[in-house]
TrEMBL record:
<comment type="similarity">
    <text>Belongs to the HMG-CoA lyase family.</text>
</comment>
<comment type="pathway">
    <text>Metabolic intermediate metabolism; (S)-3-hydroxy-3-methylglutaryl-CoA degradation; acetoacetate from (S)-3-hydroxy-3-methylglutaryl-CoA: step 1/1.</text>
</comment>
<dbReference type="GO" id="GO:0046872">
    <property type="term" value="F:metal ion binding"/>
</dbReference>
<keyword id="KW-0479">Metal-binding</keyword>
<dbReference type="InterPro" id="IPR000138">
    <property type="entry name" value="HMG_CoA_lyase_AS"/>
</dbReference>
<dbReference type="GO" id="GO:0046951">
    <property type="term" value="P:ketone body biosynthetic process"/>
</dbReference>
<dbReference type="InterPro" id="IPR043594">
    <property type="entry name" value="HMGL"/>
</dbReference>
<dbReference type="GO" id="GO:0006552">
    <property type="term" value="P:L-leucine catabolic process"/>
</dbReference>
<dbReference type="InterPro" id="IPR000891">
    <property type="entry name" value="PYR_CT"/>
</dbReference>
<keyword id="KW-0456">Lyase</keyword>
<dbReference type="InterPro" id="IPR013785">
    <property type="entry name" value="Aldolase_TIM"/>
</dbReference>
<feature type="domain" description="Pyruvate carboxyltransferase">
    <location>
        <begin position="7"/>
        <end position="273"/>
    </location>
</feature>
<dbReference type="GO" id="GO:0004419">
    <property type="term" value="F:hydroxymethylglutaryl-CoA lyase activity"/>
</dbReference>
<dbReference type="Pfam" id="PF00682">
    <property type="entry name" value="HMGL-like"/>
</dbReference>
<protein>
    <recommendedName>
        <fullName>hydroxymethylglutaryl-CoA lyase</fullName>
        <ecNumber>4.1.3.4</ecNumber>
    </recommendedName>
</protein>
Length: 298
């Protein structure tokens, strides 16, 4: 079995993780992001410039991005659904942005209040404004396995929308198993479909762990050559518009698995684990990461 020599981890805990938490202080977010930077993570999604009416939990993203310590070599990003969000993100000095579409029509309506086609039209000026400023654009695609409203999504549909996002100018497409129902063979079929048009190096996997399959799916994706992984410290998270979906695969579990497979991550597992314990203590719970529980709080 072969695996990539190293992986890029995109830490989404401060965004995907905390967008679902009603009460997290701005200072706790800043401390979290600084801790993540110190643990060796190089790609940190720090917030989201969406409508505060839709996701009030992310309303302080500007302040968060303006207040964190910028560690050299670390790129800080945010979600931007439209030009308004893009302008706020630029003002907050993001290094790159992410637009987010869905492979499911119903999820698109529920999450961003428009059809898939309208969303792609809306992203066009965002991408061209970003390109003018030399800001790279990442593309998320949600519901690549199942939709919380429509059920199964065909791999061909995922392929089609991923291709459209890529031709808009996204340097990387993050494929989201939003509800976390995926299992390895379905993940493989979906990745193979997308890989017809998009090189493996440009594909990221974004697995939520609702059904406990994220690490198995990740292992399979790694064995297929995928080398960009989205994960969330302490397994924080969920999407407010995917009811019941739990957090992303925990970064601690990803780092442990990769190191055991001989894959470089650049992350210090001990330091990362303590960052996970700190934020979950703030949330009055323990990390949703078996590795963090096994290591314990120091
Ligand atoms: P809308 O209501 O159709 O937008 O929402 P609108 O353009 O009609 O504007 C309505 C109001 O929102 C206006 O304010 C705008 O100014 C304001 P009003 O005049 O009523 O006072 N507004 C904004 N304010 C601040 N920043 C903005 C912004 N845009 C409009 N950027 C919209 C459309 C897309 C804005 C809305 O649906 C929205 O914000 N949705 C975001 C939902 C969200 O954040 N979901 C979670 C992230 S996605 C996710 O978690 C999945 C992912 O992890 C991958 C996976 O797991 O699958 C990425
Ligand atoms: Mg997500």
């Amino acid at each position: 079995m072969s695996f990539p020599e190293k992986v890029k981890i995109v830490e989404v805990g401060a965004r995907d993780g905390l967008q679902n938490e009603p009460q997290v202080s701005t200072q706790a977010k800043i401390d979290l992001i600084n801790g993540l930077s110190q643990s060796g993570l190089k790609h940190i999604e720090a917030g989201s410039f969406v409508s505060p009416k839709w996701v009030p939990q992310m309303a302080d993203s500007h302040q968060v991005l303006r207040s964190i310590t910028r560690f050299p070599g670390v790129a800080y990003s945010a979600l931007t659904p439209n030009l308004q969000g893009f302008l706020h993100a630029i003002d907050a000095n993001v290094d790159y942005i992410a637009i987010f579409a869905s492979a499911s029509e119903t999820f698109s309506q529920k999450n961003i209040n428009c059809t898939i086609e309208q969303s792609l039209e809306r992203f066009e000026p965002v991408v061209s404004a970003a390109q003018k400023k030399g800001i790279p654009v990442r593309g998320y695609l949600s519901c690549v396995i199942d939709c919380p409203y429509e059920g199964k999504i065909a791999p061909q549909q995922v392929r089609n929308i991923a291709k459209l996002l890529s031709s808009l100018g996204c340097y990387e497409i993050s494929l989201g198993d939003t509800v976390g129902t995926g299992t390895p063979v379905r993940i493989q079929q979906m990745l193979e479909a997308v890989n017809h048009d998009i090189a493996l190096e440009q594909i990221a996997v974004h697995f939520h762990n609702t059904w406990g399959q994220a690490l198995a799916n990740l292992f399979h994706a790694l064995s297929m050559g995928v080398s960009v992984i989205d994960s969330s410290v302490a397994g924080l998270g969920g999407c407010p518009y995917a009811p019941g979906a739990s957090g992303n695969v925990a970064t601690e579990d990803v780092v442990y698995l990769c190191h055991e497979l001989g894959i470089e991550t650049g992350v210090d597992l001990t330091s990362l684990t303590q960052v996970g314990w700190s934020i979950t203590q703030h949330l009055n719970r323990t990390p949703s990461s078996n590795v963090a529980l096994a290591i314990g709080k120091q």
